[in-house]
Amino acid sequence: MTDELPVHINREGVRELEVSDTIEATDSFDIRFVNHGEALHVHLNTGDGLSRVVTVDAGNRHVPGNGERRVRIDVDIDALDSESAFGTLELSTSYGAEQHQIDVEVKDPAVTRTTVDVDDTLAEPPRTGAAVFDRPELAVLALGLLAVVLAAITAAVVDDILVIAGVGVVLTGVVLALALLRR
Predict the structure, then answer these.
(1) Under a CB-based contact definition with an 8 Å cutoff, are residues 36 and 8 in contact?
(2) How far is Cα 143 from Cα 130, in angstroms, rounded to an integer?
(3) ∠ CA(143), CA(147), CA(148), 5° rounding?
(4) What is the mean pLDDT of the chain?
(5) Which residues 6+ apart lie within 8 Å of 36 measured at CB?
């Protein structure tokens, strides 16, 4: 969708118009004439398909030499008979010697709003409730200490060589897990 349609005049040659061949609009917009040469008049006209939906602020506009001029194109969405209207916007200079037609599609904004605006914050992970998992080695350390405490309590209560060996295995596993996380 467009808020502004730039039209370059006299950039490539005398009275030449450089502008996009097609645009889509869901609301009123401006045509910004940028003149790269001598002053001239630009005539604007809408084709039959757009005339019931689009109104041109002024049909004949003077664009100063090496200057700019804006022309408002009013779009009446309430005048749409269906979801969209098609037509042409005709631009001409030098009494019709240089002409350019732009294919315009005016769409109902209620129907066309099917996209989701995405910005750079989508690439960042969410910050809600994830403080424990920001440093996974702390979680492994806490679970490892819990396992060592449970193993030590079990060794003290049972008092068997196999249980003491199990505590050693648990300690070795915790140390290895922390070493792998630090890599």
Answers:
(1) yes
(2) 17
(3) 120
(4) 83
(5) 8, 9, 10, 11, 66
pLDDT of 121 > 60? The answer is yes
140-159, pLDDT tens digit by residue? 778 878 887 887 788 788 87
**Token pair in block for residue 121:** 């914050």
Give the sheet arrangement for strand 54-56, strand by strand.
Answer: 17-18, 4-9, 29-35, 68-75, 54-56
Q: What are the structural domain ranges in the chain? A: 4-115, 122-182
Task: Tell me the C-alpha distance between 98 and 1, whole Å.
Answer: 27
Given the candidates 2.40.10.330, 3.30.1340.30, 3.40.910.10, 2.60.40.10, the CATH classification of the domain at 4-115 is 2.60.40.10
pTM, to two decimals: 0.58
| Cβ neighbours around 114 below 10 Å, total | 5
How far is it, in rounded angstroms, from Cα 10 to Cα 49?
29
> How many Å apart are CA 21 and CA 91, to the nearest integer?
11
Asked whether the beta carbons of 86 and 67 are under 8 A apart, the reply is: no
Angle at the Cα of 87 (from 41 to 81), degrees rounded to 5? 130
